[in-house]
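Protein 1 of 2
SEQ + STRUCT:
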Amino acid sequence: MADSEPRNVHEENEVPDDVAGLDDTTTTSEGTSDTTTTEFPDEAEETVLGAAGRDDAIVSLRRVSRWYGEVNAVNDVTVDIGPGITGLLGPNGAGKSTLMRMIVGLQRPSQGAVQVHGREPWGDPKVLRRIGYLPEAPAPWRDHSGHDALMRAARLAGLPKEDREPAVQKALERVGLSDAAEQTVGTYSMGMQQRLKFALALLHEPDLYVLDEPLLGTDPLARRDLMHLMQEMAAEGKSILLSTHVLPDVEALTERVLIMDHGRVLAHGRAADIRDLLERYPRTVRIQTPDPRAVGAALWDWDTVLSVAVDGDTLVVRTDKPADFYERLQTHLIAERLPFSSVSSPDENVEAVFRYLVG
């Protein structure tokens, strides 16, 4: 390894997946000459907006970095991931795929500690059996039928022989591929491949799912079905970490996000809570009213209001003290008999948080 300081990298320079999903051999490490990961540090700095140290954490990372020579793909990440759905967001090159590969035990960190259910994932069959991984790469075993690909995966996952066929049929039904089970994987559309990759991930019924762009290339029907499946799994108490470039998909699935850029985690938690921490950015509030000018005149001299503007039948207010503003607003509107039908903030959604943090 070079002595110079590692630099950040776009994910297209990362080591690619040779095989998507399970295969006859499993890579659990890439050598240990530059790797120092055994136990958690007694203390680890919190490096993100939001909270670390969850009592119900399934995945825990402390001061985790991963580099390839001078190329730094993940940089000093400390974060905990618990039950439910967490959306992993970031531009290309943010380090999302590298982070996921370390969590599922396909790569060791160059430094720091990664634990799943309190244990390091690489080379530990007990941990790996509790993880379902959906990589971004195409579905594997393209010369097999969907059924045979899942049977092969069931064998590699260590399912007893008598349990394999029932597990395969259950997985096919759950992802909506029963009618296409005998088709060759190489003939599957992109959406069907994503369904198959979901089936491979859930076949052995793990409790942690790591899903890299699971909705990529899906048609509206497949997208709806797979999103519903993820919601079902979360309701069952599973933990799901999914990366995506489609922000509305994240908003439809979860409020909890983990935002990365240039190898670092910038924020982790509920989008609205993260937004509250970004005090240097004023909040936009939209008040729907048949008389926006009258409402604006009543609010413009408040010390919590930076500006007001009329947009059709909506008054757009900018405030740097949203909690104080909201506390006073509704009472004032009612007391002054000012008509309004709704109050909302576009700055509390996932897209706004992502835009503020990443730019």
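Protein 2 of 2
SEQ + STRUCT:
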Amino acid sequence: MKSNLYISTIFIIAIITLAGCVNIQKPTTSDANYFKGNKGIVLNFLPNMPPDTIYATKSGSDLIESDAFKVQIEVRNKGTYPIDGSGNIKVCASGFDTNLVDGLSLGTVTFPDAVSMQNPNGGIEVIDAGDVTFRIPKTTDSYSTNIQLTTHYDYKTYYSGDICVDPDPTTSEGDTCKPSAYKSATGQGAPLSVTGIETTPAAGNAIIKLTVENKGNGRITNKLPSDCSTQLDFNDYDMVKLESLSIGTNSDVSEHCTPKEIRLSQGKGSVYCSIPLEGSQTTSFRTILNAVFSYNYKQSISKSVKVVMLKTG
């Protein structure tokens, strides 16, 4: 009797243990879709680098100077480009008087790895911007200054989704879908998002309108500055290039699209394509639309630092 009770007890415990394992099981990373969201490169000052308040104690002729402080910046890639892990990011500093802030050294940074199944949080690089000293005039008790960091980098948006095309709009017999317009709200893992897709029936052609929108917190440009002193003009902003477009298993057919260089207005722009359909299909059908847009992106972060003269005498 005791033996049967012992076996029953072990059996119940085993069931509870298995049930517990099932309850805490999480989806694998292979279930995730990483081509979503509206972020690319994200910058952050590391904590206390530099501190919010800096005390100047070293007396000079006209200026009081602080000890040197480390300035370090985290660069994280929260998007899905570059797939091949290549490319550079140019980082520039501004917002302060160079006579009062010295030692800040920036340049180019290797692109962190993109978000992927193996790296769901994106890659990270840390910039050591040098040992920075802050100065304050002897006639001033304190002042506040900003350290603004601006990144310039190449990026791409990869769009892939199903569409309905109708090679013969004169009849609906045998059709399995209807060309229509719809919006995409999830983003594609990049600051530029494809937000609207519209297909129109046409004899022997797929008429497609794609709407793109800058959903990030920076500006889209058409070139990288050669150095931090290079100023971009009006024509350098808000330009996006349609790099490629394909339907189904076809190769790139973006030559049937216009304009291939899209000017954004209030952050939005559209490209129109009239693509000849291959094959003998006459009824409507669903297929895959793939598009790649390339651009440069510029964005900034800023930190306010208060410099205080610490009187020692």
